[in-house]
Design goal:
The complex is a heterodimer of chains A (51) and B (598).
Chain A lengths: L35 H13 L3
Chain B lengths: L1 H27 L6 H28 L20 E7 L4 H18 L5 E7 L4 H18 L5 E5 L6 H13 L5 E4 L5 E2 L1 H13 L3 E5 L3 E2 L5 H12 L1 H12 L10 E4 H7 L18 H11 L3 E4 L6 E3 L5 H21 L7 H34 L19 H29 L8 H34 L18 H25 L4 H12 L1 H8 L4 H5 L6 H4 L3 H19 L9 H8 L2
Parallel strand pairs in B: 1-2, 1-4, 2-3, 6-9, 7-10
Antiparallel strand pairs in B: 4-8, 5-10, 6-8
Classes of the chains: A mainly alpha (51), B alpha/beta (598).
C-alpha cells in the first residue's frame, strides 16, 4: 500500500463511513422483581379511599 | 461431571474453612474463649473459604486435560456469516487504538479472510480535541486498510449506558446485518486466525450465545505491569481451565475479546436502569457478567475456551492506575447484589454474582479480622492466674505452633496452586516456553514475593472502595502526571500516605494492646508503612531486567505476529505524527517478517 494523506486534507467527510442502517430490536430485560407490598398497598388505598 | 466438580469444589472450601476454624479455636482459646474470639473465627473462616475457592479453580485447572502442551493451529473453513468487530472508544489515544485495528485488519488480510469482517469504531469520546484527532486518524486508517474491509466510525451525542449502551446502540442501528459481533476494548488485539476460529466455533454450535477468550497482557513496561503480565501468561491459563471445567453452560463474559451471537445478545441483553440512585441504582456498571447471566437465562450457552490463543490486551502499569480501575469494578460488582435476585436466573449465575461481591468484600473481612485480633486482649480483660484458690498459678498457654500452622495453611492456599502450576508446567512442557523450569520457578517466587508486598496495599484500596460505595461516595483520586506509566515518589505519597498512616497506627495499637501479635501484623502493616516507596519502585521501568529474563513470558520469546504488526504500525504512525507534514505508509516488509515466523 502506498496511500499518502497530506495533513491539511483532513476535512474529508466521514458520512460515507457511517454505520449501515439495519436495525435490530433489543428490548430491555426484567431484572427487578415487582415489589408486592407497595403494589398491594396502593391497591388497598384505591379500593378503600374516600370518594 | 460439572455438577460433581462443583460440589467437590464447594466441599473443599467448606473443609478448608472448617480446618482453619478448628485451628483458630485452639489458638484463640489458650486464654479462654469469649465472644470476640467467635467473631474472629467467623471472619477467618469466611476469608479462608474465599481463598480456598480461588485454589479450587486452580486445582480443577491443574487436573484438566490435555496434560501435554498443545501448539494449536486453527484451520480456516468457509463461512457465510458476517461478523462485526466492535471497537468502543472513550477518550483513548486514537493513534494507539487505530494501530491495534490496523494490525488486526492486516492479520485477517494476510489470511485472506478480511472480507468476512467489518470493523466499527464506536466512539463515546467526550473530549472535543480527542474527537477531532479520532476523525483525522480514522481517515488514515481508512486509507491504509479500507481496501481490505469495511471500516465504520460513529460518535454518539450522549454516552448513555456507557460501554453497554454503546454496543446496544450499534445493535439497534446495524445489528441485523451481522450474524456475530466480536466485542473488543480500545487496547484489545487479536490474531486474525483466532477471530476466524471463533466464528467457526459459533457456526458449529447454534446454541452458543457467547464465546470468551483468555486475553493475555502485552506491552507491560514496569515491574508491576510485568508481574501482572507474567501472571496472566503463566497462571491464568490454568485458572481459566478450572473455570471452564466448572462453567457448564453458564460461563463468564469479561466484556471484551469475545464473540457474541447478535440475535441472542439482542434478544437477551437489553439492560434497563436499576431503580434508585447510584451507586446501587442507575446504569449497570459491571454489565458483562450480567449479560452472561441473561444469555444463560434465555437458554443460550456462554463459554470460555482457554485454548483460544492469540488474544491480547494491555494492563495498568502501576498500583495507582490498577486501584483506579479496581474502584470502578468494585462499584459494579457490589451492584450485582441488586441483580443476583433477578427472576429466572440459573443458580450458578446467582453464585457467580456472590463471587463477584466477595472479590471485594473479602478485603474488609480481613481488615475486620485484624482489628478484632488487636482488640481481643483488651476486651478479654486480665486472665485469671489463680482459677483455684490455694493452688499454684496457671499461666495461659501460648500456642505458637498452632499459629504457625494457621499461617502456613492460609498462605498455602495462596501460594500452593502457583507452585503446583510450575510443577505441571515442567511435565506439560509449558515451562520450556517460559525460559525453562528453573526460570519459571524463580519468576514465580519473585511474583509471590512482590504480590505479598503489594497485597496489603491493595487491601487498603479495596477497603476504601467498598466503604465509599456503601456510603454512596465518589472516589477522590490525586491527579497524576506520569511518564511511561511510572509514578513519582510525590505522586505515590499523595495517593497512599493514608495507607502508611494506617499501617503505623495498626502497629502502634498492636504494641500497646496485643504485643504477641506484632510479629504477625508486621507482614501486613510493614508493607503498608512503606506503601509510597513500594508504589514508586514497582512502577519503574523493568525493561532492563526483562532482558535478563525477569518475568519472562512465552510472548517475550516468541511475540505474536499481530503484536509485532501493531508495534510496527504505531512506531511508524507516531514517527509520522512527530515529523508531519505528510503521512507515510508503513513499509510492508515489516509485516512480512512477522507473518513469516508463524
Amino acid at each position: 500500500m502506498t496511500h499518502v494523506l497530506e495533513t491539511d486534507s483532513r476535512h474529508v467527510t466521514l458520512a460515507r463511513h457511517a454505520l449501515p442502517a439495519a436495525p435490530m430490536a433489543m428490548p430491555d430485560q426484567v431484572l427487578e422483581r415487582r415489589r408486592a407490598r407497595p403494589a398491594l398497598f396502593s391497591m388497598l388505598l384505591k379500593r378503600f379511599a374516600w370518594k | 461431571m460439572v455438577s460433581v466438580r462443583r460440589v467437590l469444589s464447594i466441599l473443599f472450601c467448606l473443609l478448608m474453612a472448617g480446618l482453619v476454624s478448628s485451628l483458630a479455636v485452639g489458638y484463640f482459646s489458650a486464654d479462654g474463649i469469649q465472644w470476640i474470639d467467635a467473631v474472629r473465627i467467623v471472619l477467618l473462616a469466611a476469608s479462608t473459604g474465599w481463598l480456598a475457592w480461588g485454589a479450587a479453580y486452580a486445582f480443577n485447572g491443574l487436573l484438566s486435560l490435555p496434560l501435554k502442551r498443545e501448539d494449536k493451529t486453527f484451520e480456516l473453513v468457509p463461512t457465510s456469516a458476517r461478523t462485526a468487530v466492535l471497537v468502543p472508544v472513550y477518550n483513548e489515544d486514537p493513534v494507539k487504538t487505530f494501530s491495534h485495528v490496523a494490525a488486526m485488519i492486516g492479520s485477517l488480510h494476510a489470511l485472506g479472510v478480511a472480507g468476512r469482517f467489518d470493523f466499527a469504531i464506536l466512539s463515546d469520546t467526550r473530549d472535543p480535541e480527542v474527537a477531532e484527532k479520532e476523525e483525522r486518524w480514522f481517515q488514515r486508517l481508512q486509507l491504509e486498510c479500507g481496501a481490505h474491509t469495511d471500516i465504520f466510525y460513529r460518535r454518539r451525542e450522549q454516552n448513555t449506558g456507557k460501554k453497554a449502551g454503546n454496543v446496544a446502540d450499534f445493535i439497534r442501528t446495524s445489528g441485523a446485518l451481522y450474524e456475530y459481533m466480536i466485542v473488543l476494548d480500545a487496547d484489545s488485539l487479536m490474531e486474525g486466525a483466532t477471530m476466524a476460529e471463533m466464528v467457526r466455533r459459533m457456526d458449529d454450535d447454534p446454541r452458543l450465545g457467547l464465546l470468551q477468550t483468555l486475553p493475555k497482557i502485552v506491552h507491560a513496561r514496569s515491574f508491576f505491569g510485568r508481574a501482572m503480565q507474567f501472571s496472566t501468561g503463566y497462571y491464568s491459563p490454568i485458572y481459566t481451565r478450572g473455570l471452564a471445567a466448572l462453567q457448564g453452560t453458564a460461563g463468564p463474559f469479561w466484556g471484551h475479546n469475545a464473540i457474541v451471537r447478535t440475535r441472542a445478545f439482542a434478544q437477551s441483553c437489553g439492560l434497563p436502569e436499576l431503580s434508585g440512585r447510584p451507586p446501587f441504582g442507575g446504569h449497570i456498571l459491571s454489565h458483562d457478567y450480567v449479560e452472561a447471566a441473561l444469555l444463560t437465562r434465555n437458554g443460550w450457552t456462554v463459554r470460555v475456551d482457554p485454548d483460544l490463543t492469540g488474544s491480547y490486551e494491555e494492563g495498568p502499569d502501576n498500583v495507582v492506575d490498577f486501584a483506579k480501575r479496581d474502584r470502578r469494578w468494585c462499584q459494579g460488582n457490589l451492584q450485582h447484589g441488586r441483580v443476583m435476585v433477578a427472576p429466572g436466573l440459573k443458580p450458578w449465575s446467582r453464585f457467580v454474582f456472590v463471587q463477584n461481591i466477595m472479590a471485594y468484600v473479602a478485603s474488609p473481612l480481613w481488615a475486620l479480622f485484624i482489628i478484632a485480633s488487636i482488640a481481643a486482649p483488651t476486651l478479654k480483660g486480665v486472665p485469671d492466674y489463680f482459677p483455684e484458690p490455694g493452688l499454684s498459678a496457671v499461666f495461659p498457654r501460648v500456642e505458637q505452633g498452632l499459629a504457625l500452622t494457621l499461617l502456613v495453611g492460609v498462605f498455602g492456599l495462596l501460594i500452593g496452586p502457583k507452585l503446583l502450576i510450575v510443577a505441571r508446567g515442567a511435565i506439560s512442557g509449558v515451562n520450556e516456553t517460559f525460559g525453562g523450569t528453573g526460570r519459571a520457578l524463580l519468576n514465580t517466587l519473585t511474583e509471590i514475593l512482590s504480590t505479598s508486598l503489594l497485597a496489603p496495599i491493595m487491601l487498603m484500596y479495596q477497603c476504601r472502595a467498598v466503604l465509599e460505595v456503601f456510603f454512596g461516595m465518589d472516589g477522590g483520586w490525586p491527579a497524576t502526571d506520569r511518564e511511561a506509566g511510572s509514578v513519582s515518589l510525590s505522586e505515590a505519597w499523595s495517593a497512599s500516605w493514608w495507607i502508611s498512616a494506617t499501617g503505623l497506627v495498626t502497629l502502634g495499637l498492636a504494641f500497646q494492646f496485643a504485643p504477641e501479635y506484632v510479629g504477625w501484623l508486621l507482614l501486613v502493616a510493614g508493607p503498608q508503612v512503606f506503601a509510597p516507596i513500594l508504589i514508586h519502585v514497582s512502577s519503574r521501568s523493568a525493561l532492563g531486567t526483562a532482558e535478563a529474563g525477569l518475568f519472562e513470558t512465552a510472548d517475550d520469546r516468541n511475540p505474536s505476529p499481530v503484536v509485532l504488526r501493531q508495534e510496527a504500525i504505531l512506531a511508524h504512525w507516531r514517527g509520522a505524527e512527530a515529523s508531519a507534514p505528510a503521512f507515510r505508509p508503513v513499509p510492508e516488509p515489516a509485516f512480512e517478517a512477522a507473518d513469516a515466523e508463524r
